[in-house]
Amino acid sequence: MAIDTAAVGTRSPDLTVEVGRGRLRLFARATGEHDPVYTDPAAARAEGHRDLPVPPTFLFCLEMDRDDPWAYLTGLGIDPRRILHGEQRFTYHAMAYAGDRLTLAAHISDVYTKKGGALDFLVRTVEVTRADGPVATLTTVLVVPGSRDAP
């Protein structure tokens, strides 16, 4: 089944999350980050940060805080177990820190097909903001096996 292009523009409910120090420390350990600026508030302040900075790629994890992070897929009839993560892009507008209250506003920004219908692509954009403005734009490209065989 090809993904219906009418899905473009479909929005997920906004999600607001407070970034905690413990979660940032856990992420730093999980990703092998040894720079104390990501785990020690004093080291972060010594480097000019107001608190622990949010490391690159961390914002992607916040989407998993949704009650059903895959609802946008299942709503389109896509089985999340069949998707491939094709690409992830981050465009940063401002630093985020522990204690920040971030809002994630997500929408489907594109849908297209390749390989004669064998592969469908779904592009989802997430705008991350806090009260004082934009923090980052996340773009995810998911690959969904299509219903037709490639030529």
From TrEMBL:
Against Gene3D superfamilies, the record matches this protein to: Hotdog Thioesterase (3.10.129.10)
- Which Pfam families does the annotation name? FAS1_DH_region
Give the FAS1-like dehydratase domain ranges: 6-137
Instruction: Output this protein's name.
Output: MaoC family dehydratase N-terminal domain-containing protein
Q: What is the species listed in this Swiss-Prot or TrEMBL entry?
A: Sphaerisporangium corydalis
